[in-house]
Design goal:
This protein has 341 residues and is α/β, with parallel strands linked by helices. It folds into 2 domains: 210 residues, Alpha-Beta Complex (Spore Coat Polysaccharide Biosynthesis Protein SpsA, Chain A); 78 residues, Alpha Horseshoe (Serine Threonine Protein Phosphatase 5, Tetratricopeptide repeat). The protein contains 13 helices and 8 strands. The chain has an 8-stranded mixed sheet, with helices on both faces. Strand 2, helix 2 and strand 3 form a beta-alpha-beta unit.
C-alpha cells in the first residue's frame, strides 16, 4: 500500500503549481500518491498536470474554496498518512521523509509539523531564502512544548509542513468549508484536541507571500479566530477536557477582534467583543482599558488613537536610526573616513 497521499488544492495558479509539483517529484521519499484538486480553475492548470507521473490523480470541481478542495482530496486519499501542499508553496526535498519517519517512530502522534521559510514573491520562480518563518527562538521552544495548549494560544502549524494520520484527519471532520481563513488552525486544533501533535525544528517548506494570499486580511483573521473558538467550545468532548484553557485563549481572541474594531472606529462592535473578552477572563485582561476607551465619544477615541500611532512611528524611526548607526559603525566607508579614522 502507498504510504502517504499528497493533496494539492489549486485555483488559477498554474505558474505556481509547476514549482509545487517539481518540489513533490523531487522528494527523497517516493512512496506517495499525488492528488491535485482543481477548484474550478480557468487558467492552464489542466495542461500543467497533463502527462505527469502515473501517481498523479487530477480531480476537477466547481469552485467552492480551498477547504472543499482539501476535503475532496481527503475523501479520495487511500494512504494511511496525508501531506498537504498549497499550489503556491514548495517543499524542501526531505519534507516527506522527515515527517513519515517521525510518524512511524511515534505511533501515538496524530500530526507532526515543522518550521518553514517565507518567500516574498510576485512570480513563481524565485530564489528561496531558507530562514525560519516562526523565528528561531519560538521554533526551539516548540520542539519541546508543542501540543494543544500551545496551539490554542496561537497557530504554529503551517499546513504545508504537516504529515497527519488519515484516520485522525477524518475523525476531526476534515476542513471547515465555512471558514474563509484560519481553516488550517481550526483543523489542527480539532486533531490536536484528540491526538498528540509534535513539532520538528527544521525548515521543510517555503510559504509564498503574494497579492493573492487571503491570510493578509487582518480583520478576517481576527473574526475567523473567534469563530474557531466558538465552534471548538461547542464540541462537548473537546470543551469538557480543555474548558479552562479555551476560556483563556478565546478571551484573547475576542480582545484582538475588539481592539481591531476599535482601530477601525467601530466602537459599538468593539464594545461587544471587548465585553465578551472581559466576561471570559475578567482578571489580568488588557481588554479593560480598551473597553473604557470604546465608551468615550468618538472624537476623543480618534484623538487618542492618533497619539498612539504617532508614538509608534517615532519609536519605529528611532529603531531604524539606531540600526543604521550600528551598521555604519560596523562597516566603515571604503575611503577610510568611517568612525575612528
Amino acid at each position: 500500500m502507498t504510504k502517504v497521499s499528497v493533496i494539492i488544492p489549486t485555483h488559477n495558479r498554474a505558474a505556481f503549481l509547476r514549482e509545487a509539483l517539481k518540489s513533490v517529484w523531487g522528494q527523497t521519499y517516493q512512496d506517495f500518491e499525488l492528488i491535485v484538486v482543481d477548484d474550478g480553475s480557468e487558467d492552464d492548470t489542466p495542461q500543467v498536470v497533463a502527462g505527469c507521473d502515473d501517481r498523479l490523480r487530477y480531480l476537477r470541481l466547481e469552485h467552492r474554496g480551498v477547504s472543499a478542495a482539501r476535503n475532496a482530496g481527503l475523501a479520495a486519499a487511500s494512504a494511511p498518512y496525508l501531506a498537504f501542499l498549497d499550489s503556491d508553496d514548495i517543499w524542501a526535498p526531505e519534507m516527506l521523509a522527515t515527517g513519515i519517519d517521525y510518524m512511524e517512530t511515534h505511533p501515538e502522534c496524530g500530526l507532526v509539523c515543522s518550521d518553514f521559510a517565507v518567500g516574498e514573491s510576485g512570480g513563481a520562480s524565485v530564489p528561496v531564502k531558507w530562514e525560519s518563518g516562526l523565528g528561531v527562538r519560538r521554533a526551539r521552544r516548540l520542539a519541546h512544548s508543542a501540543g494543544f495548549a500551545e496551539l490554542a494560544n496561537g497557530n504554529f502549524v503551517s499546513l504545508c509542513t504537516t504529515v497527519v494520520r488519515t484516520s485522525a484527519a477524518r475523525e476531526a471532520g476534515g476542513f471547515d468549508e465555512a471558514l474563509p481563513v484560519m481553516e488550517d488552525w481550526d483543523f489542527a486544533l480539532r486533531v490536536g484536541a484528540r491526538h498528540p501533535i509534535r513539532f520538528i525544528n527544521r525548515i521543510l517548506a517555503c510559504v509564498r507571500r503574494h497579492g493573492g494570499n487571503l491570510s493578509d486580511d487582518r480583520g478576517a483573521m481576527h473574526w475567523a479566530a473567534v469563530q474557531v473558538f466558538r465552534k471548538i467550545e461547542s464540541d462537548p468532548e473537546i470543551a469538557g477536557r480543555w474548558r479552562r484553557l479555551l476560556r483563556r485563549s478565546s478571551a484573547d481572541a475576542y480582545y484582538r477582534l475588539g481592539y481591531w474594531m476599535l482601530c477601525q472606529a467601530e466602537q459599538s462592535q468593539a464594545r461587544r467583543f471587548l465585553r465578551e473578552s472581559v466576561r471570559r477572563r475578567w482578571w489580568r485582561n488588557r481588554a479593560w482599558r480598551y473597553l473604557v476607551l470604546s465608551l468615550m465619544p468618538r472624537p476623543v477615541t480618534e484623538f487618542l488613537r492618533s497619539l498612539r500611532i504617532r508614538g509608534q512611528q517615532r519609536r519605529r524611526l528611532r529603531r531604524m536610526s539606531g540600526a543604521q548607526s550600528e551598521r555604519s559603525a560596523s562597516h566603515p566607508s571604503r575611503d577610510g573616513q568611517g568612525p575612528g579614522s
